[in-house]
Design goal:
835 residues; mainly alpha; 29 helices
């Protein structure tokens, strides 16, 4: 995922900070001198002195007085230990966070301080230190020299976190100056320090930085070595107390590498851990990261769910966070999930927190939200004034994350109103404002630009943007990742339900044992004289047990219903993922198909230019017969240019139609042409992805079939799935190097009574008999992990059934004998009474 890799890069650059050329004093030196005077006058070693020393250290850092600042930090820490002031360690971590100023290690020290604060059972809200705007910039040559001097001065101190903080800033300088060898050594030094301290989060963090650096340098061997080191580290961890932080750290690490499936599994594990110890700050952080991950995958329903969990925790436990920003994030997350009522609800909560500083920001977001919703409701003329006002404020106040979207939405409105020139103006403005990391908007923009240029009869530009769109779609592969992520969540849900069932069964067993013991005790003491009372008690207990059992059953019913709802949402997302996968398979073939007519147009244009030059020469010579002959050739060339131009136009229009959602209505379709088209597109698509791929394909179409009443996009998707599977099968057999083997796929049609048969046959390895009955089951795939969703044949089966037809398979498995005949044939039978 390129978008995920870019996020890692941006995080790393944030670690390095934005760099400026000159030193900056962030604090008036008079203020530091006054604080120093207070310290000199202060009598005794007490809590107030600890606080003054920490404040003095922070102000010193802001003005680049490193030795002065860290000397005060060490003195404050030592004094806290001496007088038994437990909050002194909290102030220590907040002071280190103040020195660092920005990026990941600031969050680490804030979290350390928060955890210590929680252990002290403090009732008031925890407040993190706020650094001056712009700090710690600039990390430049003068600051580098101060860092080196300070590192030498404190090289023998026991408090290694102080050394680590300075090395962190030193890494920023090495990155700025592109001294990657020193940067790598600095990361190794930081990992060594935190291994000595036994702190996992920084270790994995700097490992992720090393991975980013190796990726930037194209050093794949170094990346493998780093991953081996990480695996050894994980294997060595045995402390159960580290379960939650370790899973959170691993989740962030894998998310930064684009391995979302593994990341989700670790996020789900650490949620259980942090819930068990009531660590609400960390729970809120986990849900925040999961929201980011789901948004990157465009799984907006799941993003909305995790964002609401974050808001619930923030509000119910009164976490000291910027609620205005949290409600803003929730508002747009709900909009992406198309839950407009909740989006407006969070907009209203934002409004209650509006101040003079953020009033314009709120107005822009409010106008933008109204415009977005009206656009989604196809009220284009009503949406335009709101979006224009939002765009005007965003441009004026430099709201860079918003203006590009508002310009794009305006382009979308004007496109639907058929005002293509205005649509083009806003689309190009959005393209100019576009942030390089916003791959989602980049895809949307190139698709709408292709549609606008197509409407303006600018086919070359339409093809250019359509090609960019299809390339982005292929490169992202988000549909496959989304499927795997959902399957990871399903596994987590089922695992949790199994654990709940085990607990209930164990509780029931203990209850049964307890009831048995109590009954024996009553019988042995009461005897015959209490038989009537015993019967009454038994009836009473049975009634109570029945009531309790009914309550347990009702609770289980509600839980199962919730699980069923979650699984239904999951199923709908998986179906959409498979549809997107089909579109991805088409794009490579279409790119190849459209290149041919464009090549013809270019070639005939060049030849025509030469003919015109020749004709001008013959005119000058006065040879009219030769002029007429050349003009005839020229006319013929122009006819060919026109023919191939129309062919390219038809391909572009066809692709644009396929990019939009289908109407779902049946229409008369030439089944032979449809099958032939998808056979060739599948072949060229595979060739585009793998230049070494090659196979023979043949067609055997029954000309009497005619047109059939079907949903062409759905049946086309079925045919494409079967053909792709066939090409995959023959390619796998070819890789075995079998002598004399010719990979072949045959597509044929046949009219049989009131039915049409479509056959896709191959001479691959065949399907083993033990799995033949499973191939139409959801999630079942024989392909390696990551190469198949397990939904292609399942969806194909459902589509054919919805058309009143059936799909069957005949296969002969190859047992590995030389020259053995094997292969598979899928046969689709469709009714043709409505033609």
């Amino acid at each position: 995922m390129k978008s995920i890799k870019l996020v890692v890069g941006l995080v790393f650059l944030l670690f390095c900070s934005n760099l400026r050329a000159q030193d900056t004093l962030y604090v008036d030196p008079v203020k530091i001198d006054s604080l120093k005077a207070l310290l000199d006058e202060h009598q005794g070693d007490d809590i107030e002195k600890v606080r003054l020393l920490n404040e003095y250290a922070r102000l010193s850092f802001y003005n680049r007085e490193l030795i002065q600042g860290f000397t005060a930090t060490i003195e404050a820490s030592d004094l806290s230990e001496k007088i038994g002031y437990k909050e002194g360690e909290i102030l220590y971590h907040e002071t280190l966070a103040a020195f660092l100023g920005a990026a990941d290690m600031v969050s680490y020290h804030h979290q350390k301080a928060r955890m210590l604060y929680t252990k002290l059972n403090k009732s008031d809200s925890f407040e993190t230190v706020q650094v001056p705007e712009g700090y710690p910039n600039p990390i430049n040559e003068p600051y580098y020299r101060k860092l080196i001097i300070a590192l030498e001065h404190f090289k023998d101190i026991e408090k290694k976190e102080i050394l680590a903080a300075m090395y962190d800033h030193l890494g920023g300088y090495y990155f700025r100056t592109e001294n990657y060898a020193e940067l790598e050594l600095t990361f190794r030094k930081l990992i060594e320090i935190y291994e000595e301290l036994g702190e996992l989060y920084p270790i994995f963090l700097y490992y992720s930085y090393r991975t980013f650096l190796a990726s930037r340098l194209g050093d794949t061997e170094e990346i493998k070595r780093i991953e081996e080191e990480i695996q050894k580290l994980v294997a060595s961890i045995q402390d159960n107390k580290e379960t939650g932080p370790l899973n959170f750290t691993l989740a962030n690490y894998y998310a930064s590498k684009g391995q979302q499936t593994i990341a989700v599994e670790h996020y789900l594990r650490c949620i259980d851990f942090f819930e068990s110890i009531d660590d609400y700050w960390m729970l809120a952080d986990v849900y925040s990261e999961m929201t980011n991950l789901y948004n990157n995958l465009e799984m907006f329903d799941k993003a909305a769910e995790t964002m609401e969990n974050r808001i619930r925790i923030i509000e119910s436990h009164d976490l000291n966070l910027n609620k205005y920003n949290e409600y803003n994030r929730a508002m747009w997350t709900m909009y992406d999930a198309k839950n407009y009522d909740k989006a407006i609800h969070y907009r209203d909560l934002k409004e209650e927190l509006v101040s003079k500083q953020n009033k314009e920001d709120f107005l822009a977001d409010s106008y933008s939200l109204e415009g977005h919703i009206l656009l989604d409701q196809n009220k284009f003329e009503d949406a335009i004034p709101f979006l224009e006002r939002a765009l005007e404020i965003s441009l004026r106040s430099n709201r860079m994350s918003s203006d590009e979207w508002e310009a794009y939405r305006l382009a979308d409105c004007y496109y639907h109103l058929k005002d293509y020139k205005t649509a083009l103006k806003y689309a190009l403005q959005s393209q100019e404002l576009l942030d390089a990391g916003n791959l989602r908007l980049k895809r949307y923009l190139n698709l709408i630009l292709a549609e606008i240029y197509d409407a303006l009869d600018s086919q070359n530009k339409a093809y250019k943007h359509l090609k960019i769109y299809t390339d982005l779609l292929k490169e992202s592969k988000e549909e496959d990742v989304a499927s795997l992520v959902i399957r990871a969540e399903v596994r987590s849900i089922l695992d949790k339900k199994e654990r709940e069932i085990d607990i209930l069964e164990q509780e029931q067993y203990l209850k049964d044992q307890e009831n048995k013991t109590q009954r024996l005790w009553i019988i042995s003491i009461g005897g015959a004289l209490l038989s009537a009372l015993l019967v009454s008690l038994i009836l009473y207990r049975n009634n109570k047990n029945r009531q309790k059992a009914n309550r347990i059953l009702q609770t289980q019913k509600e839980r199962i219903q919730e699980t069923l709802t979650e699984l239904k949402v999951t199923q709908s997302q998986l179906v959409q993922s498979e549809k997107m996968a089909s579109l991805g398979e088409l794009t490579a073939g279409i790119a190849h198909e459209i290149q041919n007519p464009l090549n013809f147009v270019n070639n005939f244009s060049e030849v025509s230019n030469e003919l015109i030059d020749e004709m001008n020469e013959e005119i000058n010579k006065g040879d009219l017969d030769e002029v007429k002959a050349i003009s005839a050739d020229l006319k013929q060339n122009l006819e060919k240019i026109n023919h191939h131009g129309k062919r390219a136009d038809a391909i572009v229009k066809g692709m644009l139609e396929h990019s939009r959602a289908g109407s779902g209505q049946k229409e008369l379709t030439d089944i032979n042409a449809l099958t032939d088209e998808f056979l060739r597109l599948a072949y060229h698509g595979l060739r585009a992805k793998d230049k070494s791929f090659n196979a023979n394909f043949e067609t055997n179409f029954d000309a009497t079939v005619g047109k059939v009443n079907i949903i062409s996009q759905d049946i086309g998707r079925v045919i494409l799935n079967l053909i792709n599977n066939a090409f995959y099968a023959v390619n796998e057999r070819k890789k075995l190097g079998e002598e004399g083997y010719e990979p072949t796929v045959i597509a044929s049609t046949k009219k049989s009574g009131n039915h049409l048969e479509i056959s896709i046959a191959d001479n691959g390895m065949g399907i083993p008999s033990e799995i033949k009955d499973k191939i139409f089951q959801p999630f079942f795939t024989s392909k390696p992990t990551g190469q198949g969703t397990g939904l292609g044949l399942s969806l194909s089966y459902d589509i054919v059934k919805a058309h009143g037809g059936e799909i069957k398979v005949e296969s002969k498995e190859n047992k590995g004998l030389p020259g053995q005949q094997s292969g598979t044939e899928f046969i689709i039978k469709l009714p043709i009474q409505n033609t």
